[in-house]
Amino acid sequence: MFFCTLIPSSFQGLGAFFILYGTLIYHVLDTFFMDNFGLETTGTIAYLSIVIGTIMVLVSFTTNFVIMYPSTKSYGVLAMVYGFTLVFVLLFCIIGFFYTPHMNGVMRIGVRNIMQNYNAKSVMNIYLDALHMQLKCCGAEDYTSWFRTSWAEGRKIVPASCCKNLKYCHNLEPLIVTDIHEKGCYKVFDNYSKIVNASYIGTIVGSILTQFIAIASAIKMALRYRAIRVIDSVLPVLE
Q1: Segments forming the whole domain that contains residue 35
Q2: Neighbours of 146 (CB within 10 A)
Q3: Which of 15, 78, 122, 178 supports an S-S bond with 56, CB 3.0-4.6 Å?
Q4: Are 124 and 150 in a shared domain?
Q5: How many domains in the chain?
């Protein structure tokens, strides 16, 4: 009963999680224009997550098929499929651990470079303004980072995109701090990185537990099915 219900449901749940995670990551990266900050591999982790999620959903359907049409060989193959799926998930999480600090570092460099060249009439200014408004942050370390840019020219001012409410924001002199987002974008990047890494750790633990149980269950079912076939083959046929 456990194998017939919980195992397929677990794989469907994990698959849905990976697909949703990949979709959200891709949406966030696309929304915040990270490619324009120099991160040319924004889609890699998102695509990989969606592919793994799709594989896990297919594995759940395969499990249901084997349950409907059982055989010793099919359960053995299913155990191998579970093993390969676990390897894919672990590789994904390892890649993710290396990818997250890379993404964080490139975003930091991108923000700093755009701030230093904010005077230039460039489309990059729009990307940074969008980042400010979407993440509710201002500047690099904090809002005072803007004071040290050439754009500020020694004044204590921040761009309008740092305002909490553009309609009632006094972003020019004199600066009213309560009207703007004081937190720097670096802190937001760090917080997101911690959340992402925590999700990788949770995924590793959950996948190892789920798939080891699935592998053990598949092997157990294969042995049980073989034993039943052996018993059936030696029982006398009553006429």
Answers
A1: 1-69
A2: 23
A3: 15
A4: yes
A5: 2
Residues 23 and 120 in one domain: no
Burial of 235: CB neighbours in 10 Å, binned 0-12, 13-18, 19+: exposed
Same domain, residue pair 19 and 135: no
Strand partners, 236: none
Within 13 A of 141's CA, how many CA atoms are on the CB side? 5
Final residue of a domain: which of 54, 69, 84? 69
Q: Is 80 exposed, middle or buried (0-12, 13-18, 19+ CB in 10 A)?
A: exposed
First to last CA, the chain: 34
Q: Which two tokens stand for residue 191?
A: 């917080």
4: three-class secondary structure by DSSP = helix
Whole-angstrom Cα distance, residue 157 to residue 175? 6
Q: Are residues 116 and 135 in the same domain?
A: yes
Find all residues with CB under 8 Å of 113, minimum gap 6, and list them.
none
Cis peptide before 8 (omega within 30 of 0): no
Q: For 121-164, how does the pLDDT look when each residue is reduced to its tens digit (9 = 90+)?
A: 677 788 788 888 888 999 999 999 999 998 888 888 898 889 88
- Report CA dihedral (199, 204, 207, 212) to the nearest 10 degrees: -160
Q: Which helix (H) or strand (E) covers residue 190, if one does?
A: helix 185-234
Domain boundary among 69, 102, 122: 69
State the Cα–Cα distance between residues 23 and 29, nearest whole angstrom: 10
**Could you read off the pLDDT of 56-75 as tens digits, one per residue?**
888 888 888 887 877 778 87
